[in-house]
Amino acid sequence: QMNVVVTKHEIATGKLVGKTAAFKRTTQWNNGEYITYMDGYVYIALDSGAVKRIKTDAITADETAVVEDYSFTAEGLSGKITGFTYNALVNKLAVTAGDKVFIVGAKSMKVESSVACASSGRVGSGCDANYIYVLYEKNNAYGTAKFNVYDWSGNLVKSAVEIPNLISVQNQNNVQSMCVINGEYYFLVSRWSSGGTLVKVTFDTSVLK
């Protein structure tokens, strides 16, 4: 096992604001610990299928905030939870579990729709008010982001979209997660020998129409 922390940064500068106390992940070497923010909390999906959460205001420079176990449930949700992403404008979650993406109303916590989404090679996810982006591993390809795109009604919009060459190093990397902030797309490139690299991209969503 190995220790994991949740860190908090300023969006504008990237400056580290604080981090949580460490907690143990399930195994030492695997994909996992995908997070989303909703209503003042960061929710963490572990590789085991368990969920933890932490109140963001509690994450400070003293590094003492404890990430708590959390029973994440939604009516109609089934399968092992591997990740989730939330959008406040539509007030919905997209939850990857089993071989599906479940669209969940954040107020009702009921599944509104679901769509097939293969779990093999699936990593993190992100969203904006129009689309849900579910990432898949593409190893040793200069940090190429590969993802399926869904809408909030639970329809597949386009599969295997790629944004190539996010970094200049070919080997020992893949894109693990992403988020969308003010129309800009941020991809987390996992570099196996030197940690992660966050890359900002302007992505033209008209290619999805």
What does this structure look like?
It is a single chain. The protein has 209 residues and is mostly beta strands. Helix content is 0%, strand content 50%. The protein has a 4-stranded antiparallel β-sheet, with no helix packed on it. Strands 9-10-11-12 form a 4-stranded antiparallel β-sheet, with no helix packed on it. Strands 13-14-15-16 form a 4-stranded antiparallel β-sheet, with no helix packed on it. Strand 14 and strand 15 form a beta hairpin. The termini are far apart.
In a few lines, what is going on in this structure?
The protein has 209 residues and is mainly β. It has strands at residues 3-4, 7-9, 16-19, 23-24, 34-38, 41-45, 51-55, 68-70, 81-87, 92-97, 100-105, 111-116, 122-127, 131-136, 145-151, 156-163, 173-181, 184-191, 195-201. The model has no long low-confidence stretch (mean pLDDT 93).
Range of strand content: over 45%
The number of E-state strands comes to: 19
Inertia-based shape: globular
Can you list the strand order of the major beta sheet?
5-6-7-8
- In round numbers, the mean pLDDT is 93
Biggest sheet features: 4 strands, antiparallel
Q: Could you say which structural class the secondary elements and strand pairing correspond to?
A: mainly beta
Helical residue percent?
under 10%
* Radius of gyration (Å): 16 Å
Low-pLDDT runs: none
Helix/strand order:
EEEEEEEEEEEEEEEEEEE
Could you tell me how far the N terminus lies from the C terminus, measured between alpha carbons in angstroms?
Answer: 44 Å
Helix tally equals 0
